[in-house]
Structure formats: structure tokens, C-alpha cells
Amino acid sequence: MERIGVFVCHCKLMAYIDNRTVVEAISKKPGVVHAAAYKDLCIAPGLEQVKDVIKNERLDGVLVTSCSPVLHKEVFRQAVTSAGLEDHQVQVVDIRSHNGIKENTERAIEVISSALDILKASLPPVHTRVPITKKVLVIGGGIAGIRASLDIADGGYQVILVERTHSIGGHMIQYSETFPTLDCPQCIETPLMTDTGQHDNITIYAYSEIEEVTGSIGKYKVRIRKKAAYVDWDKCNGCLMCTEKCPRRVLSEYERYLDLPKRQAHRRAIWVPHAQAVPMRPIIDREQCLHFTKGKCEVCVDTCPNKAIDFDQQDSFLEIEVGAIVVASGFDLMPKSAIKEYDLDPDILEGIEFERILCPAGPTAGKVIRPSDGREPKTVAFISCCGSRDPEHGVPYCSRVCCMYLVKMALLYMHAVHDGQTFIFYIDIRTTGKGYEEFVQRAVDEDHVLYIRGKASKIFRDGDKIVVWGSDTLTGKRIEVAVDLVVLGMAMLPSDGAKELADKLGIATDEHGFMMELHPKLRPLESSVPGIYLAGCCQGPKDIQDSVAQGGGAASKVLALFAQDEVILEEAVTS
Amino acid sequence: MKLSYYPGCTLKTKAKNAEDSAIASMEVLGIELAEIPRWNCCGTVYSFAGDEEVHQLAPIRNLIRVQETGSHKVVAICSFCFNTLKRANLLVKNNPAKMYTINTFMEEEPDYEGEVEVVHLLEVLRDDIGWESISEKVQLPLKGLKVAPYYGCTLLRPQDIAIDDVERPTIMGDLLKALGADVIDFPYNTECCGSYQVISNPDYVSQRVWDILSSALRKKADAIALSCPLCDFNLDHTQKEIIQKRSDFKGIPIFYFTQLLALALGLDPEVCRFELNHIDPRPLLESKELLRH
User: Fold this and answer.
1) Which of A476, A482, B37, B139 shows its CA 20 to 30 Å from the CA of B93?
2) Residue ranges of the alpha helices (H) in chain B?
3) What integer is the mean pLDDT of A172-197?
């Protein structure tokens, strides 16, 4: 290139660079026929100026120095190619830095000089055309994955939904009622689960995990491990007689291992998570099953009318090819043991445990009891920010939903126990969603939920009661309350195994293990790898509303991709 | 093995029972506590109330004394001394400017650069000897003695000098377990005893002490074990008034952990100097058949 134009763009972001010195230095470089500073080049009038200079100066190379090329390269590439140049004849380079003017200016000149060398050596890029396999893999069958699957399937494309547990529904289906409208997930999520299960375009692989992913946008090859359920799901008709007759009762992961009196929350060794599971197919827990541990029980075999029990079943593998992937792998709660000043006690619960106790479709059918003795708790303390906003014990970030679900549970508790008393210990009340603040006000005004502004410093059992120490920072007084039950708003973490999944996909994670979006504001749904999109809590803590919105958003990204027949992959070439 | 030992003022007077039992026990465990020469007052934590280098001269001077003996480690038994020495050491290590000021001011002393490691006796027992070895040397297991370990503040706060988990310490309980005692965990075990408030605000301290003692009593503790002479003063001495005020309270013995260590190692109870304890623990020990004459 012999006639290069250098456009030094500046706006207030660039106030810390001496443009005149930069232009002076760059105009002396060999091959540069035009160098000048411009204001706001990235808007239409600015782009017109660039095109005019290309024409008037007969430029064969354009270097724009500005903000990051991540957001600006495409804008300038389009303008320059519309003026008759080729893709490789334009470079955009980021010259922002945050030191003194002198250092910034020197650095800018260095960066621009290097970029000039790259521009001069650039040859037309090699383009590879990849036909798009118009099928999508959705990882995770929580509400975000369900929404994404349905939207893509309704758009007419095949969806393969892989879920690690043996039913879709995610955490949402475990909840009692959802804020701020108090509709129950067993009513509002189950239609979506059923739709997903019955949709012609959706294939669910439940009790399955992602084993390996290769390829790139348009053509990913994915190996899926279908874990052995020891039940032939094709023969099984979901009658669940086996789960009633199985003699082995154990604590249930779906019920958060709640140990309630009379083993109300126990499951059998052959089990489905709940009465509305999709698919409605049981698995045998090999660790607990008497056949596997003692080698003698065959009650399920005798019970099953379809001869579906298969103790010899092995994990099986499946290879699929998809054009895009939506990751919706969700969250887990930080374990209660992370906060050492709070005792581990059957009557100190985390959020989802108490959700199960409040849930009308839960193990107590919504009757509020406390695990230690089955009595109805008359006083309940809720503690927010357990592990969140607390770099000492947990994580520095806010988990976003605890303020709302704690007040929701306080309100539901008051609706169930009319002579009850609730305390919510809080740092700040964060109610930014639509209708959220009104919800909190309603709980305070109508249901007499008592807020205490201060963190609980210590929680321990004293006889029949759980004692909570805290402070009321509004009055500056120390507080001690003795209650029957304590509910902790534990921090939200990426789900177990999220990092391994991200590694298999080759996508970046942030310092807390959440999947990293391509741009924190402008590209929240795209991962660091083209063709892999993010939805729900795998990207960061969020409520149901936001998770659903992201599921739909990720679906629209996939549909936009599938509207094309091929992707053009560009490989830069230099001499 | 020989270890440099900093006693501090109280262990030579009111807390002689802590010192004598510690030195005798450590001898049985194969460690000679070698008192450093010419030591002075540690500064007693109070020196950290203000941001003034001049208050750090006392503790640093003690560390220089340790350095002069050719040792790089000093052990304290008093939690207050441990706290002050370790914090002063950290202060000079982390603040080159303050270290320079202190060294320049004490021009008659050799320069100090934070090379001495300050440890508490409990750490020596855990890290250098180990619970198992201690357990093997126990002659008189403290069977049936329900002891509640009380940590107070100075072993654990601030966090960067803590000898154990700040919020759920187990180190003293682990020792007592090794000695055969029944260890009672109680919620007030890291609450402040009231400290120096005992001088200006004795009623407040008396209330705090009652909170601590009654919490241990509700957990059915026979006695409390601790390592700090000021905690001991408050928890032990203040009981006289509480007994007068509360007809239902008969007192609860307070031990230095070193006294229980000496007892379990089969040493003559004389070294425990029980006569210095305000609430006499001997009737309790006799009732558990733990006092050999």
C-alpha cells in the first residue's frame, strides 16, 4: 500500500491524547499521504468524511485510530468497502490509555506505527464458507433452557435439549410461589415443560451430560453421555408403581436432602423427582438400591408391568451435529457450611429448603413445619446476604434475587401461620424489578414482616430455640432474637461442573466461574465463541423474569443465524 | 528442643499459675521454654489504640531481645502479649517507612526488620508437638471433666494474626480432647470478656461475664479453660459479685489451659498453683478424682 490515510478519531474519551503530536509524527511515516484528527468519526457524517478522503486522495489503505475494534471495526469496514476498497485495506486500532498525556501520546504513536506495518502487510483474507446445520443444542432444562428450546422449536428448527437430572424444570419447579405475582411454578411452569416434552421439534435427553464438543459455528459435533438409569425408558410407561413399592427410602436431592419427621421428604431408591416430571421416567439410584448394594432385592422387577427394569444397563453415547449451542446450565446455592459463625442445625435452612416446606406440592403439602420436631414454627428469622456481598466468607457480588425471595417466603409463611412473627435481617433491600418494591411494601404493611437493618453475626441453637445475634444499624443497638426457624439467603454460584462444561465448549468464564458474555452491556447473550449463546444464571445471578427474557433472546440469536444458509469464516492473511 | 519464651508481666505475678504449669508441662513434652533476657512490657494491645510508632518501641524492643539470642521464633503464653508482639512484628514487616522510623529512633539498638516469628503456646502444642503425641503422654486423662474452651478476642483478632479459624476456632478444644476432657462448645466462646472496661465500667463487665458464664453453664460445662490473664481476671474475679447477686449461681472454676495440661500429664498439682485461682477448682477436680495428692 502506497497511499494510506490515517484518521485519528477523538471525542471526550480521547481528551488525554495530544492529537496534534500524533498526527505530526504519523504523517512522516512512509506510505502515509493523509493524516488528520477528526471528531466523532463513528457516526454517519464522520463516515462520509472518511469516504470523501478515500476518493479525493485515492487512498489504497485506511487506518482508523479510535476506541476498541471489537465494537467499531465493522462500522468502518462497511464505510471503507462501500468506497471501493477491500476488507484487508482497513485497520482499526485502539489507542485509549489511562496515563498522563505524554505517555498516552507516545503509546498512541507506537501503536499506530505497528498497526501501519500490519496494514501494509495485509493481503486479501481467505474466506471459508461453512453450511449451517440448522439444529441447535440447548444445555440445561431449567426455565431459561426451556424458553430457548420452545422459541427455537416454534421457529421451525430441531432442538436437542440435554438435561443432567432426570426431569426438566430446573430450580424453578422446586419453588413454592414466585414473586411478585405469587403464581406457583407447578401451575405456570408445567405447561411449558409439557410443551417442551411434546413438541415435534424438541428431543429431550434427560439424565444426560455433554461429553465432548468439537467444531465451530455452523457445524458443532457433540458427544452426549446418556447415563444408565437401569430402567428401559422405551418400555417404561411412567406408571410409577415401582417407585411406590421400592422398600428403600433415602433423603432426596430434589428435596434438598431435607430430613423431615416421618420421612416425609424421603424418596425411594427408584424414583422420579416429582409428580409433574418431564419425562415421567424413573431412575435407579445405584448407590442406594438394595439390588446393587446387597444383591438381593428385585421388588421393582416384579412390580413393573412392562419389564422395563434393566440392572445391566450401561451408560450409552450419542453423537449429534448442530449449528449452534445455547448454554443454560443454571446455578447452585453456596453451601450453608461456608459461613462458620452460623451453626449447622436442622432448623437452619437455606432458601430452597424452605421453598420445599412452603410448597403446596412439596413434601408437607404446604404445611409449615420445622425439621427438628415437626412443630409449626411461630417465629422465623430470614437472613439476607449470606455469602453474597461478603468477600470474607463468600463472594463480592450481589445475588440479586435473595431480597425478593426472602420477603416472598416471609409473606407466604405469614399467610400460612397467622399468629407467626417474621424478622428479616438485611443490609439493603434491592427491589429493582417491575412490581418488586410494591411487593415488599405489601409484605410490610399487610403481613407485618419486620425488617431489621443489620447483618446477623452469629446463629446458634439454645435449647428449643435458634438464637440470632445481629445489630439494628438504624438504632445502633445490638439485637438478639430467639426464633423457631432460620432461613438463610445463601449466595448463588455457577452450577456444579459449570467450569468443566465451559472448558469443553471452549468458552470463557469470569473470576467467579460464571460464563463470560462477549460484551457486558451490548452482547450479554453471546459467549466468547461464535455460535455459542448464554441464557439464565450460567451467566450471572438473575431472577425468573430475566432468565426467561435471556432464553428468548438467545433463541432469537439462533434464529437469526439459522436465517442464513452458510457462515463465512474469515482468516486474516499477511505477507 | 529450646524455644525463646516471652513471659510478660502478669505471668510473673497474678498469672504465675499459668507460667509454672506451662514451663513444667513443656519440659515433659521435650521443650525448654528459655526466657529471653532483659524483656520489658509488651505494650498490652492498648498500644495499638493510636497510630503512633512510639507505642511500638516496647514490643519491637522485645523482639530485638529475641533476635539477640540468635533465635527466630518466640513463644508467648499470655494472649495479650502474643497479640501485641505479633501485631507489632507485622506492622514493621508491612510498613517499611514505620520500620525505618522505629529503627532510627532506637539508635542504641540493632536494626529490626521483622525476622522473628511470634507464636502462641497453643500453636507450638498443635504444630510442633501435635495432638497425638500429647495424647500419648497423658498420664491422668481428664475423664468426665466437661470443659468449655473460651478464646476471647486476642488469639483470633485481627484476622491476620489469628492462630485458628476466626469464627469457629477449635485449637483449645482439640488440646482438651487430647487430654481426655469432654469439650463443650458454647456460643459465647469468642465474645469479648469486657477487657479493660473492668476498671472504668465494672457493672458492664459483670453483665458480659454473666452472659459468657451462663451460656457455658447452660451447655452443662463444669469449668472454663482460657489462655488470657485479663479474660481470667474478668471471668474468675468478677464471679464474687455475681455470686452475691444471684442466689442460683455458685461459681464455675476457670482454668488456664496450661493447668489442665500439667494435670493431665501427671505432674504434681503443686505446679498448677490452684491457690491463685479465685474460684477454687480443687473441689471439682476432687469430685472427678483428678487430684492426686
Assistant:
1) B37
2) 16-28, 57-68, 79-94, 96-105, 121-123, 131-137, 171-178, 197-200, 202-218, 229-232, 239-245, 257-264, 282-287
3) 96
Looking at chain A, the whole-number percentage of residues with pLDDT higher than 90 is 91
Strand partners, A487: A349, A382
pLDDT tier for residue A98 given thresholds of 50, 70 and 90: confident
Q: How confident is the model at residue A371 (pLDDT cuts 50, 70, 90)?
A: very high
Q: How far is CA A404 from CA A256, A401, B75, in A?
A: 21, 5, 51
Residue B133 lies in a domain: no
Q: Which residues on adjacent β-strands are paired with residue B68?
A: none
Q: Determine the Cα–Cα distance for residues B208 and B249; give it in Å rounded to an integer.
A: 15
Rounded average pLDDT over A19-36: 94
Q: What is the mean pLDDT of residues B154-165?
A: 95
Which of B121, B155, B177 lies at the terminal end of a domain, its last residue? B121
For chains A and B, what is the number of CB pairs under 8 angstroms? 11
Domain limits at B268? 139-287
Contact A340 B218 (CB under 8 A): no
Domain ranges of chain A: 4-130, 332-493
One domain for residues B113 and B143: no
* Number of independent structural domains in chain B: 2
Which stretches of chain A sit within 8 Å of chain B by CB? 340-341, 458, 460, 462-463, 467
Tell me which residue in A341, A463, A467 faces B167 most closely, judged by beta carbons. A341
Q: Give the start-end residues of each E strand in A289-416.
A: 316-322, 324-327, 331-333, 348-350, 379-386
In whole angstroms, give the CA distance from residue A562 to residue A559.
5
A405: its cell numbers:
425471595
Residue A5 near residue A63, CB atoms below 8 Å: yes
Residue A136 burial by Cβ neighbours in a 10 Å radius (0-12, 13-18, 19+) = buried
Of A222, A22, A467, A73, the residue nearest B214 (C-alpha): A467
Is 90 exceeded by the pLDDT of residue A525? Answer: yes
Q: For residues B127 and B162, is the Cβ–Cβ distance under 8 A?
A: no
Residue A1 has a pLDDT of 83
Q: Whole-angstrom Cα distance, residue A37 to residue A23?
A: 7
Looking at the domain covering A332-493, what would its CATH class be? alpha beta
pLDDT bucket at B105, cuts 50 / 70 / 90: very high
A161 contact partners, CB below 8 Å, separation of at least 6: A138, A141, A145, A146, A149, A168, A196, A202, A203, A204, A205
Contact status of B165 with chain A (Cβ, < 8 Å): yes
CB B280 within 8 A of CB B251: no
pLDDT, residue A15, reads: 72
Q: What is the pLDDT of residue A14?
A: 67
- Please give the pLDDT value at position B168: 92
> Would you call B167 and A462 a contact, using CB atoms and an 8 Å cutoff?
no
A508: how many CB neighbours lie within 10 A of its CB?
13
- The residue among A232 and B54 whose pLDDT is bigger is A232
> With 70 as the cut, is the pLDDT of residue A124 above it?
yes
Nearest to A161 by CA among A199, A189, A133: A199
Q: Is the pLDDT of residue B81 over 90?
A: yes
Place of cell 438400591: A289
- How far apart CA B188 and CA B235 sit, in angstroms, is 12
pLDDT value for A329: 98
Q: Name the nearest CA neighbour of A487 among A423, A416, A393.
A: A423
Please give the DSSP secondary-structure letter assigned to residue A484.
S
| Cα A532 to Cα A134, A212, A213, A218, A392, distances in angstroms | 14, 14, 11, 10, 34
**Quick check: A72 and A64 in contact, CB under 8 A?**
yes
Measured on CA atoms in the order B99, B102, B105, B107, is the torsion positive or negative? negative
Cβ–Cβ contact B167 with A under 8 A: yes
- pLDDT at residue A100 in the model: 86
Q: What is the pLDDT of residues A413-432, one digit of tens each?
A: 999 999 999 999 999 999 99
Closest residue in A to B191 (Cα) is A458
